[in-house]
Amino acid sequence: MITPNELLPIPPAHGADLAAASQRYGIALSDWLDVSTGINPRAYPVGAIDPALFQHLPFGDDELRSAAKNYCVAPALPIAAAGSQTLIQWLPLVKAQLTKRQCRVAVPSIGYSEHEFRWRWAGHEIIYYDPRDSRSIDKLLDERSIDVLVVINAHNPLGSLISAEQLLTWQQQLEKNDGWLIIDEAFIDATPEYSVAAHTQRAGLIVLRSLGKFFGLAGVRCGFAFACDEILAPLQIAIGPWNVAGPTIAIATQALRDNSWQQTMRIDLKTISAENVALLQQKNWAANNPFLRNALFNSIELPVVQAAQIENKLAQRGIRVRRIEINAGFNLLRFGLVDPSQSDTWRRYKQALNNL
User: Which residues form the domain of 69?
Assistant: First the structure.
């Protein structure tokens, strides 16, 4: 009997798999401190939810999409979906439906692995570029050898940012051959000046946004795709009706309209991030190795053995971090933020790092 894994690529593993960590280390789920993700520890406050929202199908998401359009300063309404992951899964199939052929898709050799997996799973050819060197993208575009370019901005897990000017230059080059430029902006909210959502009337430019990171609302599952009608129309057909739950529509609309909270949080994140950076850089293993920053996480490049040892020792104390392979010799350890205002949790985190 043939198993699915003999026919299809194996799905990538993700951070925050506390169930597996709980079984491995014998620590109850409720006793873990999870810093393996880049989710804001000071999440948007969700108030009471109208019980009626659970009792009928979520017809009509115009208010949600309008709130997203205004928040992202986009020229037109986006498509809303149950998280940007849903959109990542459907875009390769939409592209195949539109072109009726296999496309050559450039993805970062380091980065959120679902992009590569979903394009490969849909039957497209994968080409890698080095996200640490923009010249590797320039070379592919100069050769006109790709149909789709996927860029993560801000990059996860490197934390690097690419200017809007550079991204739009790449879009112009791809447009000459009816190519797509997909920008995953899941981590852009703290630095909105780098977003290209305002330019998504351009042909082939697709911007993905999410409420999971900056707003700290990963569990509500809400994301958006901004693009021209030629892309959004078939994408909407692909993802189908009722894709965003009624309670999610209410929560997300409120969060996207709350300008005061957003402005305050961008300031607060700078303080939270600075304290997390200072804590980590007190450790020789962090201070003496490449240290990569983002508003919502910090990544440290370490030799493989050392990275695995630190991950394991922290896990033994119920602290979950994310270890990401760079190459045969080095890993990244990604540390999400811990909120210093949560004194008990902060004290536990400091003690675990000190005990290393």
Answer: 51-258
Three-class SS string for 249-310? Answer: HHHHHHHHHCHHHHHHHHHHHHHHHHHHHHHHCCCHHHHCCCEEECCCEEEEEEEHHHHHHH
248 with 144, same domain? yes
pLDDT tens figures, 303-332: 999 999 999 999 999 999 999 999 999 999
Say if residue 68 is in the same domain as residue 204: yes
Burial of 298 per CB tally in 10 Å (0-12, 13-18, 19+): buried
Whether 4 shows a pLDDT value over 60: the answer reads: no
- Mean per-residue pLDDT, 162-190: 97
Alpha helices in the chain (DSSP H): 4-7, 18-25, 62-72, 84-99, 114-121, 135-142, 164-175, 229-239, 246-257, 259-280, 284-287, 304-316, 343-354
For residue 322 the two structure tokens come to 């994310």
| Reported pTM | 0.95
Task: Give the C-alpha distances (Å, rounded to integers) separating 61 from 130, 153, 198, 203, 287.
Answer: 38, 27, 21, 25, 47
Using left for φ > 0, alpha for ψ between -120 and 50, and beta otherwise, residue 339 falls in: beta
Q: Is the pLDDT of residue 14 over 80?
A: no
Looking at the fold, whether 302 and 217 belong to one and the same domain comes out as no
Dihedral pair phi/psi, residue 153, rounded to 5°: -145, 110
Determine contact, residues 253/53, Cβ cutoff 8 Å: no
On average, the pLDDT of the chain sits at: 95
**What is the model's pLDDT at position 12?**
84
Q: Are residues 253 and 306 in the same domain?
A: no
Q: Do 254 and 64 touch, CB atoms closer than 8 A?
A: no
Assess whether 264 and 332 both reside in one domain: yes
How high is the pLDDT of residue 150? 98
CATH value at residue 329: 3.90.1150.10
Residue pair 174/51 in contact (Cβ under 8 Å)? The answer is: no
As a whole number, mean pLDDT of residues 99-114 equals: 96
Each residue's pLDDT tens digit, 263-292: 999 999 999 999 999 999 999 999 999 999
